[in-house]
UniProtKB/TrEMBL annotation:
Protein's UniProt keywords contain Acyltransferase: yes
Family: Belongs to the thiolase-like superfamily. Beta-ketoacyl-ACP synthases family.
UniProt name for this protein: Ketosynthase chain-length factor
Organism the protein comes from: Streptomyces erythrochromogenes
Listed SUPFAM superfamilies: Thiolase-like
Keyword Transferase (UniProt): yes
Gene3D superfamilies: 3.40.47.10
PROSITE patterns: KS3_2 (PS52004)
Domain Ketosynthase family 3 (KS3): 2-406
InterPro entries (alphabetical): Beta-ketoacyl_synthase (IPR000794), Ketoacyl_synth_C (IPR014031), Ketoacyl_synth_N (IPR014030), PKS_Beta-ketoAc_synthase_dom (IPR020841), Thiolase-like (IPR016039)
Amino acid sequence: MTSRTVITGIGVVAPNGVGADAFWKATQSGVSVLDRVTRSGCEHLPLRVAGEVRGFDPGALVEDRFLVQTDRFTHHALAAADLALEDARLGRADYEGDPFSFGVVTAAGSGGGEFGQRELQHLWEQGPRFVGPYQSIAWFYAASTGQISIRRGLKGPCGVVCSDEAGGLDAFAHADRAIRQGSRAMLVGATEAPLAPYSIVCQLEYEGLSTRDDPERAYRPFTDQACGYVPAEGGAMFVVEAEDEARRRGATVRAVLAGHAATFSGTRRRDEAGEGLAHAVRGALREARCAPEDIDVVFADALGTPEADAAEAAAILHALGDHGRKVPVTAPKSGTGRAYCAAPALDTAAAVLALEHGVVPPTPNVYDVCHDLDVVTGSARSAELRTALVLSRGRMGSNSALVVRKGSPTAS
């Protein structure tokens, strides 16, 4: 197959908005929605600030029979998948004649912690007869992929990527490969819900987790006040298709998946991590047949510690050369939190929307950049955007880079 893989639908469930339009409006304006953690049972934990998805009613979006089987991270995924399919104008009638041509791939790092905690509490307090049967599947990383495919009748290639945070970008590579091997369409993305007490306790050992209690100072990447990141929930799902198939059915091509590469550089030395990220960027550019000067905006990983930020800045400069000092760099997640595998999925949604609107969104809560990068702060910046670079790193040393190109109207 020679047809390009394109994005035709975007579905977002994020701390700053549900739906792509609400998400983009808040992202473009630079609104920070970081706030004190309000989830029950978290009152006495050291983590004080996070990006919560508030006002999200899964019961209004997902049938009861799926809700009782699934954790909050899958509720997010089911809702985001619906939004993506609606945006792509892709209904069951479009694929029910060939369900094996449509698959699902998601990424997950934390799994169903809230569901698992509840059932384990039943075990400890009441005994095994009070543990629900869905405990065996709801916590699992692959739960979202499975439930989306079952609910929508999708029987094509299905999988889950568990490769730390960068898996949110690696999932796009898996979807692209499925398209190139003959699938018509794929649902791809990542959602997370890591704010239950058990999940938070597991995160307390993470290097770089910010425990500051001031929402405006808890997550300030690329500044001399950088003190780590704050976690977040939510995520994004996308419909990707073979371009010729999308054109055939009259779909709007929102963006093109142009190139991807991944590396693993270990966890000990940040300079080696920077080298690994730079290698991933060069690989993604090579696959996209893209020169460094062609990159119009970089959506940074922005871990938010001095060492990690310095390594990322060095990687951008090494991979893009002199252009690395000129290209606009942004990290909208500093206003929503870092949603682990879902963070690069949300960045990809923001990148596609930025390309469409010709606007680079700002990096909330960041003003005094201390690295040799053109980090967009304060307010959004209008620019002619054709190509975006999205970066992601995991705590355990995985690195991933994705090149996304601006889409084009439906062919006549």
